[in-house]
Amino acid sequence: MVVGGDAAKEYVAGFAAGVATVIVGHPFDTIKVKLQTHNTKTQVKEYKNAIHCTSQILRSEGVKGLYRGASSSFIGMAFESSLIFGIYSQAKQLLQGETESIKPQLQVIIPSAAFGGALISFILCPAELVKCRMQVQGRDSANSNYVRYAGPLDCALNTMKSEGVKGIFRGGFTTLLRESIGNATFFSTYEMSRHYMHLQLNSNSSARSQQSKILSDVGIGIISGGLAGMAFWTAVLPLDVAKTLIQTAPDPNSSRDPFRTLGSIYSRVGLKGCYAGLGPTLARAFPANAVAIVTWEGAAKLLGVKRD
């Protein structure tokens, strides 16, 4: 539980975690978005797999192609991470009250995380729309249905000019579903795995040096964060595929219904289409979320946040 007075510090720690996540995870996200956009149209895949997609990006655009749309991602992810960790910690404290519990309480964790996820979706949706549209355009748009933008700001302004304010929030309902379900899964996995690993470690070692304690805390953060990230994306990847297609659709009048979109994908390419980008997503999920959790816990500790 977060002790009162530490709320602002939790948001700062979450912000640091978001920046670390983008640095590690954005190239994997670019590959995921490319696969989701181009490999769900027909039975013929534009990219054979994640490795082929990566090589094509590097060949045509260089390393910077893997970080296309990263500036909007930095802004969106940093604030999203700040809010989700801060809101989650405060909501959990509010629901838990003064009750002390050794074992994580799922009846507290799940609604706290889902509530935080629902709130951040309103900030995350516009940032991800810009990021995804930047990622799919590539270098040569002469034979593409996708509009080419000079940068994230140009993308946002053109979207609002052509589609109105509601255009920048395209895919908002799908983002809300993804974040609510995903964060409930993420924090449940994180809290439970962290708890049992600490129990196991403490039962095997009654006396540990400060250095070994720091190393073990980092190790537990890496494993619990990585597993939580993989659980998040395994649970909600179909919704993420639907969100990507809704946000990058060339036709502004196309459906915004995620279930209708997934039904259309399934009818064209089967169940595998609903999990397009699974490989790079899971490859990204472990290191990116491991870094996020270690950064969050480390920053909170440096800022003097006290937890049970």
Short description:
With 308 residues, the chain is mainly α. 75% of the residues lie in helices and 0% in strands.
Write a structural description:
- This protein has 308 residues and is an all-alpha fold.
- It has a single domain (7-302), classed as Alpha/alpha barrel (Mitochondrial carrier fold), CATH 1.50.40.10.
- It has 11 helices and no strands.
- It has helices at 7-38, 50-61, 70-96, 106-137, 152-163, 165-168, 172-204, 210-248, 258-269, 271-274, 278-302.
- Helix 1 crosses helix 3, helix 4 (106-137) crosses helix 5 and helix 7 (172-204) runs antiparallel to helix 8.
- The chain starts with 6 loop residues before the first helix and ends in a 6-residue tail after the last helix.
- One of its GO terms (molecular function) is L-ornithine transmembrane transporter activity.
- Keywords: Membrane, Mitochondrion, Mitochondrion inner membrane, Repeat, Transmembrane, Transmembrane helix, Transport.
Architecture blueprint of SSEs:
Blueprint: H1 7-38, H2 50-61, H3 70-96, H4 106-137, H5 152-163, H6 165-168, H7 172-204, H8 210-248, H9 258-269, H10 271-274, H11 278-302
Helix pairs in contact: 1-3, 1-11, 3-4, 4-5, 4-7, 7-8, 8-9, 8-11
